[in-house]
């Protein structure tokens, strides 16, 4: 579940003016998470559980790695958001994923889908498409994953969790998928693109070394769930804010890191210690 982002830290055209609106909004979302400590249920893969839980904790949220069908009817209504990740998928996990999505919808709780390697196999694609039928609030994937969901077909060039397409290659597919599903769709890559089928928002934060650390993509999806939990009426804004804040934490962490292992640790420390001045000065968001 390595992150698929290849980032540059240079501001892009139009970013500076957009930041007058977006940077304070991103900070406000993080403050809300810290003050409300939303309970986020994560049904995720074995590879990402530790990093995902620690990312949520460092942001101020409360993670719960509960996936049993015996617990979901009682537990999911207590949450403020749900994150469902298709990473280490087996048939035994699908009923719990579907039930959690169903209960979240019934309780009007937002839930986020991470369609890991959606185009890798027929089994995985079918499962991801079935999850789309439950109308996730947000879908976050790399270019290959979003294109696979849009096309509804297995990709013969699939490299598993690694994208063979840039995020920009999937923008139009993301817009169409958002229009068809009613979900906000986020495409991770050199630039993160977030769309509701009409608007397209671009996040420019992050560092190239994220792609060498497993579960960073999974973890930012969980962070999206936490930001969405405290502002469910503004899914585009919450998603862009989560991606930008995570990216800023990675940039700060990179200043202290000696390699992927130390970046993993310093990213979590940086997210925990992020202050308002730093967030306002480093968030880079623009609109197409």
TrEMBL record:
Chemical reaction(s) catalysed: 5-(2-hydroxyethyl)-4-methylthiazole + ATP = 4-methyl-5-(2-phosphooxyethyl)-thiazole + ADP + H(+)
Pathway given in the UniProt record: Cofactor biosynthesis; thiamine diphosphate biosynthesis; 4-methyl-5-(2-phosphoethyl)-thiazole from 5-(2-hydroxyethyl)-4-methylthiazole: step 1/1
Entry's EC annotation: 2.7.1.50
InterPro entries assigned: Hyethyz_kinase, Ribokinase-like
Keyword flag Transport: no
Annotated keywords: ATP-binding, Kinase, Magnesium, Metal-binding, Nucleotide-binding, Thiamine biosynthesis, Transferase
Any Pfam family hit: HK
GO molecular function per UniProt: ATP binding; hydroxyethylthiazole kinase activity; magnesium ion binding
HAMAP family on file: Thz_kinase
Function: Thiazole kinase involved in thiamine salvage pathway.
Family: Belongs to the Thz kinase family.
Protein known as: Hydroxyethylthiazole kinase
């Amino acid at each position: 579940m390595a992150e698929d982002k290849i980032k540059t830290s240079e501001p892009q055209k139009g970013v500076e003016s957009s930041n007058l609106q977006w940077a304070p909004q991103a900070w406000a979302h993080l403050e809300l998470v810290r003050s409300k400590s939303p309970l986020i249920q994560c049904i995720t893969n074995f590879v990402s559980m530790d990093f995902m839980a620690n990312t949520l904790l460092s942001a101020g949220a409360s993670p719960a790695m509960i996936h049993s069908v015996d617990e979901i009817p009682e537990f999911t209504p207590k949450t403020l958001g749900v994150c469902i990740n298709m990473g280490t998928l087996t048939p035994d996990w699908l009923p719990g994923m579907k039930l959690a999505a169903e209960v979240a919808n019934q309780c009007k709780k937002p839930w986020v889908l991470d369609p890991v390697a959606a185009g890798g196999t027929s089994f995985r694609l079918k499962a991801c498409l079935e999850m789309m039928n439950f109308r996730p609030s947000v879908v976050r994937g790399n270019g290959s994953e979003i294109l696979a969901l849009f096309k509804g077909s297995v990709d013969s060039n699939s490299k598993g969790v690694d994208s063979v397409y840039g995020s920009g290659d999937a923008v139009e597919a993301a817009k169409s998928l958002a229009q068809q599903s009613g979900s906000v769709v986020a495409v991770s890559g050199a630039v993160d693109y977030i769309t509701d089928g009409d608007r397209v928002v671009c996040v420019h934060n992050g560092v190239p070394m994220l792609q060498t650390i497993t579960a960073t993509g999974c973890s930012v999806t969980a962070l999206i769930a936490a930001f969405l939990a405290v502002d469910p009426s503004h899914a585009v804004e919450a998603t862009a804010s989560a991606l930008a804040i995570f990216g800023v934490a990675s940039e700060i962490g990179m200043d202290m890191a000696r390699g992927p292992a130390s970046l993993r640790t310093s990213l979590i420390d940086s997210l925990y210690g992020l202050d308002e001045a730093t967030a306002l000065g480093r968030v880079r968001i623009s609109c197409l």
